[in-house]
Structure formats: structure tokens, C-alpha cells
Amino acid sequence: MCAATSLSLPEMDYVSLVCCSLAFVLYCNTLGSEFVYDDRRAILTNPDLQPKTPWSQLLENDYWGTPLQDPSSHGSYRPLSVLTFRLNYLAGGFSPWGYHLVNVVLHCSATYLLIKIARIVLPKNKIGSIVTGALFAAHPVHTEAVASVVGRSDLLACNLFFLSFLAYSSHVSHRDSICCSNFYKRYDKIATTLQKTVTSCNKTNHERISSKFQASDRWCCRVARVKSWWYILVFLVLAVCAMLSKETGITVIGVSFVYDFVYSKNQKKKQKRSFLILTIALLLILTARLQTKTPRFSTADNPTAREPSSSTRFMTLSYLPALNFLMLLYPSALSFDWGMDAVPRIQSVRDPRVFFTLCFYAALMVALGIGASKWMDYKSGCTVCQRRNSDVHSHHCRMTNNNNITVQCPCPAQKITWRDATIFALSLIILPFLPASNLFFYVGFVVAERVLYIPSAGFCLLIGIAGARLWKNGTGRVYLSTGFVLVLTGFSAKTILRNRDWSSEENLYRSAVPYNPPKAYGNLGSILNAKGRIDEAEQSFRKALEYRPNMADVHYNLAILLQSKQKLDEAIQSYQRAIHFRPSLALAYVNLGTALIATGKCEEAIAVLRQASKLDGTGLKDRREHENAKVSALLQLGALYSDQGRLQNALAVYREAADALPQHYPPQRVYNVLGETLAKMQLDEEAEKWYRAALEAEPDHVPAHITYGKLLAKNVSRSAEAEQWFRRAQRLAPHDASVYHHYGAFLVINRRYSEAASMYERAAELSPEDFELAVAAATAMRKAGLQDEAELWYRKSVRMKPTDPRGHTNLGAMLHLNGKYKEAEHSYKKALRLQPDDETTLTNLHRLYGIMT
């Protein structure tokens, strides 16, 4: 039977090996990269990756782990991509290396599959496949999809897209195959010889041979039909899988339709049946996909979509496909984000970009017109197979007609033309790009490099077609080779350098400053702040606001920075601006409440925190973060009431928090503070229930171990049980100073001073800047009779807070006990200079003078 044109196996392996090796070498420097930008939300904070999340949830949640029915869901349904993330997590946790390795392998496999496709759709010419494969392996526009883990959906969808197409091409090949053509060639030679000798027995021999070959042909055709149906079934399954990896995967049906229409020149009846299957499949898949909600996005994500002027909107949206094609042709300007005003809107026909847009569409129409013109110049063909006549046709077709053999004509298929390949390449560029073109619905981005991953395959095929045709002409091959090597070298260098930009968030955001300064500076400030480079971070935030003053996130992050610098008044103003520009930003309310409490404005803080707890999160991009912030607001409000001694109010707020807990929020913290509040109110029995609930929700929750131990310690008969909980907390958090602090306090109550001194000393060592722990350690040592060690820790506490009179008083008392009277007098006098009327210090100093005299 007929098969798709391809190179021999050794040659194909050689070309594939070189191109796939190139792809791996260029992207191996991403293996050491971090999680950047959207990777955090898709990987680090995605609950679908956690083992406690049922596998079935992957079918119910969007790409970011939000339930699809949730009003705040992004609407991107890609369960197969999330499945690969979860398998990555099971294999290596949150180590970025494994995630990046899978991405690189997927890029190599996509390169290999594209070479296979090139062998099918291009005329037999190895130059075209080499150019296509090498260009696809090295194209810099792929860096976002490969170097960013979140680009996994594009890589996986592309691989499944290619596999699906290959299955459909095999379906067409078997559907249109000339069954047992080798038999017919042998039969033709025999029949020709018999025709020349013309004897009476020749007719009998002819009939006997004919029946023999008819039986063989029927069996061959039956196998071909089975394989044809099998391949179209595989095609449909892979097409659905491609769509479940990313929505653009569904366009493989359209590309396959174009391939069948262009490359299949006979068997129109069977072709119509295939077209019917494709159409039904497309309608069913689209209907199922459209049952989910349309993705939501903010104005900053795609400002043109919300542009009130229809002419501006039309001109700008028409320009974007041309800009994307320019990015494929000349990938110089690349950025992690093209939102906001990174691509200025076209507001006048005098804008030079209008002329560029017209030229782009004119060139596209010319290319399509030249490709379509092939349908106008067919000559008359064979009456049986409808193929263009050649010398090979005559005897086969005459014999088929004269003897009424019900088999397909064995005439050889017409060769693939460059025009066929051009039409296919254009369809591979255009159709996968349509979902991102804003043509059918608005999307949440202006330009996104990763959505060009599949369309770039069509672009590489076009370049491969051009290169192969120029090479075939035989002129200027040296210049052609030199030019291709230079382009490939330039692309490779750009890819390697761009991968370095994606290696860390700081590099990524700095690289985007020339293209999208407000977004780049805003994100850069957050990264610098997290690294402790406070001054640089503040400068970045302020630069971002110079470009775009209405960015709520930047005001919020600047406020956090100012709050950490104790510039509370400025921080409060920044929080208020953030709320002004985005009233639904719950975290801004929570932190504003904290800042107000720190400045003593408790009633204002209560009002702000109460307002935060009632915010509506419908339609927000990150609903989980919003709901978490609302719970945090209630916990902050409860803590404020508790500090004010308004325990009934605190209890009511904590109960409200417990009732409003979202499904994803860990409840143990809320249960624990409920228990603490009830314990303060002497409601020990109910407090114990909440402590137990906290430990059931999270058996390793250290604060619950400590607070439960403190509760049990109030009952002397349960002292041993209480100590067990302190010991468990110590095993769970051996480097947590608070564990040793509370365990030491328990031991002091039980008059086990030596053990308490050891616990307090360890706590003070773990938290060397904590004044209170240093004083507690010194006090425990004094009670244990370790006077020299106690003196040492009192001296440390004085060094920590030289302006705190308590430290000097405590040190003076210790020196007093140790007989160091002069030093004790000096410490007492320092304490009195800081707090002149302190009765304790005056009394101790009076006693000291009594001893000294």
C-alpha cells in the first residue's frame, strides 16, 4: 500500500539526532533555574500537587487549582498538564530541576515529531527537514514555554498535537492506499506478455491469474480499512488529550482537515466521510469545552479589550497578529509580560504600524492565493482514479475497466508539490493561533510568547520550504548555507542568553524593564525586598509607580516594606492607596489593621479588620488568597480583642473565623486560638476540645502541643501528661526557641530549676536577639544556683537593650549577690538614670549601701 514519503531510517535518525541534540544543548542551562513568575502559583501554591488532594480533583479544578465552578476560577481546564506537575512532585517534591528536565525533554520530543511531520508534508528533500528541525530547536521565542515550568501546558499540547496529526496522516495514507499495488505491477507484466502472444489459452490463464489477485487484493484492502479506522480513533483520542493539555490543542482537527483537503487527490467519497467525522468531533469537543466558563482577566492584562473606541480596538487587535509574526521572524524583543501599555494602542491611521499591518495581511493573502491557485490548473485525469495522466496509467486502468475488477486503481499518486506544503504550513501557523487572536473572544494577554510554540512549527516549515526550493535551484548554495548557519547561530545565542533571564526572577524582571517598566519594576521590588535589599526594593517600587501610579499591588508591597522599616505613617498611606485602587485587596486591609494597631489607633484597626472580613471575592483571580486574608483579618481582630482583655469579643470573632473557614485553609491555627481564649476564660473543658481538634487536623502542629501542654499543666494530677506534650513539641521543632521557652516555664512552675535553666539557655541561644529570653535564662540560672552563668546572661541582656532600665537593675542585683558591690552600684545608678523613681532599684541600692558601710 502507499505510505507517506519519508527518508530512510538511518538518514531520518541522523537528522533527528542532530536537531534533538541541538534542542537539548541549548536548553540544558535551564536545568538549574528556579521557579519564576507564574510557576509559583501553578506549582508552589497549587493544592492539586499535594498528596492529600484526591486525584479526581484534577478533573474538577482549573490549571491553578481553583474549582471550575468557583466564580473566581480562571477557566483554563488543563488536567493533563497538572497531572504531569503532580507526578513531578511525587518524584522530587518542589525541586525545580525535575520540572525543568521534563520541559527540556518535551521540547526535544516536539522537535523530533516536527521532523517526522516535515518528512510527510514536504516534497522529498532532506534540506527542508533539516532547516525545519534545526530552526524549531533553536528559535528564541520558545524560551518562555521551555524555561518557564508553567509553559509545560504548551509543550505537552504541542507533542500531543503532533502525535494526533501523525495519526491522522496515517489514517489518510491507509484510507487512500492502492491495495496490493505490487501484485498489480507483477500482474501487469504478465498480462502484457500474454497480450503480445495472443493464444486461446491465454484468456484462460488471464482469468485464473485475475481471480488469484482479486482474492489477495480483498484481504489487503480489508487490513487497510481496519488500520484506517484504528488511526482515526487514535487521532481523536490524542486530539482530546491535546485539548486537555491546553485549549489550543483542539486546532489539530482544523490542521488535519486542511492536510486531507490539500494532500488527498482521490477517494472523494472516503474523504467526505473523514471530513464528517472531523466536523462532528470538533463540534462535540467545542460544545463540551464551552460548558466551562470563559477565563476572566483584568483591564491591565489586555487593555485593548476594554478600549471604548471601536476603531482603536480594531486597529490594535488587527496589528497584534502581525506583531506576533514579526516576533517569529525577528525575535529580538522578548518579555515575560506584554500587558498594561507594553504595546501602545493604535489610535490613528497615521500610525506607522497601520501600514505594517496592511503589508502583513497583503502578503498573507498573496501566499494563500498562490497556494490556492493550484486547484485551477489540473489537467484531465484517469477515468478510474481521477489522477493526472501519465504513461503508467494506460494498461492498468484499461484492464481495471474491461474486467470489472472492484478494486482501486493502482496508478501512482501525484507527487507532493511545494504549493501543497505552503498551504499546510500556513494553516499550521494560522489555526493554532486563532484562539489567542482575540477574534472569537478576548484573551487575558496582549502578546504571549508561549502561545506561539505550536504556530512556530508552521513558520519553521515555511522557512524549510523556502530553503529547500532555493537549494534545489542549485545557485548560491554557499551563500544560502552561510546565511542559514549565521541565522541558526544567532538564534542559538539568543536562546542561551534568554534562558539566563529565566533562570531567576530577578534576572527575568530586569530583562523586561525596557519593554514593560511598571510591571518589571513592581515585580523586581518584591524580589529585592524578599532578599533583604530594602533600599533597592523601595527604589524599584517608586519607579514602577512613576510609570503607572494606579497599581494597587505595588502600593501594597511598598507599604509592607515601609512597615518593616517602622515608617508606619507612610506605610498606612500606601495601604490606603492600595485599597483605593483595588477595594477588594483583602491583604491590604489586614496589614493596614496591623499598622494601625502599632500606632495605637485600635478603634480604626477594628473597623478596618471588620471591613476586611466582609469583602466579597467573586471574580478575583486568586480566590484562595482572598479567603485566607479574610480569615487572617478575623484572627488579627480576635488577637486585638484578647490583648484588650475583651475575651468575650475575641471568642465571638474566633468562632466566626471557625465557621467561615474555606476548604483549603488549615484549621488548626483557628482551633488553637479558640482553645487559648477559652483557657484564659477558665473554660478548660471546652478549651481542651478545641486543642484536641487542632491536633486532629494537624498532628504536627507545634503551637497546639504547647498550648495544650500549658492547659494540662494547670491540673497538678495531669502534670506528667503535660510534660509529654512539651517533649513532643521539642521533637517536632528542635530549633524553635518558643518550645524551649514554654517547656522551661513549665519546669520552673514545678521547681525543677536546673532543667529549666538548661531549657531557657537553649531558647536564648536559638533566639540571640530576644531580650526577654535572655532575662528568663538568667533568672532560671539564678534560681538554680548558677550565679556566674546568671551574671553572664544578665550582661548579655544589657548589651541587647542598653536603654532598658530593667536590664541594669537585674544585673545590679546579680552583681550584688555575687559580692561585686562597686559594679552593682554602677548598674543601679545606670538604671536610675533611665528610670529615676523606680522603687525596686532604689531599695536594692539602699541595701547595697548598708552592706558597703
UniProtKB/TrEMBL annotation:
One of its GO terms (cellular component) is endoplasmic reticulum membrane. The chain crosses the membrane at residues 229-262, 274-292, 312-333, 354-372, 423-445, 452-471, 477-497. Keywords: Endoplasmic reticulum, Membrane, Repeat, TPR repeat, Transferase, Transmembrane, Transmembrane helix. Residues 292-365 form the DUF1736 domain. This is dolichyl-phosphate-mannose--protein mannosyltransferase. Its main location: endoplasmic reticulum. It holds the Pfam family TPR_16. One of its GO terms (molecular function) is dolichyl-phosphate-mannose-protein mannosyltransferase activity. It comes from Ceutorhynchus assimilis. Pathway: Protein modification; protein glycosylation. Its EC number is 2.4.1.109.
